[in-house]
Amino acid sequence: MALEQRRQPGVAGSQLPFDPSQDEAFAYGQAHERSVLSLGVAGAHVAGNLARRLSPADTEITVVNAAPDFVQRMRPNQPAAGRDIEAPRLSDVFTGTGIRLRPARVTAVDPERQVVAVADSDGGGEIDYDTLVYALGSHSDDQSVPGVAEHAFDVATRPSALRLREHLDNLDGRGGGGKVLVVGDGLTGIETATEIAETRTGLSVALLARGEPGARLSAGARGQLRRACDRLGITVVEHTGVEAVEAMRARCADGTFLPADATVWTAGFAVSPIAAAGLEVTQNGRIVVDRTMRSVSHPNIYAVGDSVHTLGDNGLPLPMNCGSAGYTARQAIEAIVGRLTGREIANRRLGYWYNAISLGRHDGILQLADGAGQAKPHYI
Length: 380
Fold this sequence. Notes:
Layout (H helix, E strand, L loop, with lengths): L1 E5 L18 E14 L2 H13 L5 E7 L11 H5 L8 H4 L6 E4 L1 E6 L4 E5 L5 E4 L2 E4 L3 E3 L7 H4 L6 H16 L5 E5 L3 H13 L4 E5 L10 H14 L2 E3 L4 E4 L3 E4 L4 E3 L2 E4 L3 E3 L15 E2 L12 E3 L4 E2 L12 H20 L12 E5 L5 E6 L5 E5 L1
Parallel strand pairs: 3-4, 8-19, 10-11, 10-16, 11-12, 18-20
Antiparallel strand pairs: 1-2, 1-3, 2-3, 5-6, 6-7, 9-17, 13-14, 14-15, 21-22, 22-23
Cofactor: FAD
Protein name: FAD-dependent oxidoreductase
Pfam family, one: Pyr_redox_2
């Protein structure tokens, strides 16, 4: 998102109707203050709130997004399984806010020249900024294991989820009996396996975990997860790693093979390498910021969502999830509004207090966490 301060009148509007997430960009401005930001759960939340809180006489906001729709990043496992979920048009989402939309894909950030390069159907161009809010999010890590990029499916984006859906439709069309292997013991893997098993009853679903599925949950919540897998007929393969993915099977670390008509890869996410061009980043490419989400190497750049590396109130790095997207977005909003208006910057809480896990449409777990981010005995 780009902020642009200018002397011409700008337009601002109301708060977003919901807290959105994915990889895109948007800009806002004020008299001599130009800024660019990317759109996702965190980015859209920042854009809508800046439009609401900054003066319409001074502020212009432009959203640059690769797709015309808003993707609910925490839910693509549902359309992958065959369910329809809303993907509202961004033009409808931002109606009445005065936010400008530009359909384009961010290809580079030059922090020294203070420009963001974009590509679109007309060849693209550059957007200059005074303040940049970077929220390009994350994508499935398909480079760590051979064969994943060529043979596996993922649910990290709506297009990839719909590609998996089409493939599962074809398996169902053969009369059922197809084998789906979901690789990954984190929440995305659990939610994807249970969603597919509940929706695609003609397919057999296996969940392969390097450790134990839901290992960070309490004992009671893990029992609830086990019962859900049993009820849905999911085969759980524990303490097994995957060394390679082939067209119709996965090769495990012990040399055995697991057959799969569809391998769904949920074993990790990676961030875009765009931030590494000049910004201080961690080894895995996330932008290092201070307590207000401001880049430690370039103070006119803010980062939110999965793209940011920041410590929570417990002194530990916030995980890459939708909860962290909301916390980092709220803090960035306070910091940007405070610095542009001369107000005191409020410190928002940066916490990790629970995990919400869907187990299909009729079951789920809310796992509470303590101050250190560890599971409490109590769950719902």
